[in-house]
Amino acid sequence: MVLGPGNADVAREGGMPVQLQAGVTIGGRVFHTDPVVVPGMNTSQYSIEDALGTSWQVAVPKSGVIMSVWGYDSDDELLEYNIILHRDEFTSGTNNDAYAPVDAEKHLWVGPPIVIDSFKGYSGVTVGGFDNVGFAYVAPKGFLYGQCVTQGDPTYAAADLLTLFFTILPDLEE
User: Fold this and answer.
1) How far apart are CA 40 and CA 130, in angstroms?
2) In the chain, what are the domains?
3) Is the pLDDT of residue 91 over 50?
4) Which end of the chain is more exposed for a tag (fewer CB within 10 A), N or C?
């Protein structure tokens, strides 16, 4: 969109015009998390919808919007997996068992599972990600908590071969 005269947004390429009702502040900060190595993985074969490792946490601003998520798979599995994010601690899945979320904790989910299904394979590594996630969240403790769930049946050569990274647009008050 292009800001037009009189605070009107004008969409390009036939989009719908939008009239702004108040001023807009655009933040220029982007927060990149530290790498999260998914703990608890093993070398047994996984089945579809198994917990991939155990739960983990990642330090984040206390509120913001998740812009992208990507994973670095050092075992080159080309495996589709889901990332389920929670705003507080939750009951972890048991590695390599069917993932069964706890009903009483559904209010902790940040949004629907983030599906990582787009990959680029390099020599011995796979990088997969999801751009434009757009999940707004509040993390009172300054952490998001997560669980990965398989959507395939990989066998990893060694434990701890999946590393996750998040890009977040923090709230301006942060």
Assistant:
1) 23
2) 27-170 (2.60.120)
3) yes
4) N
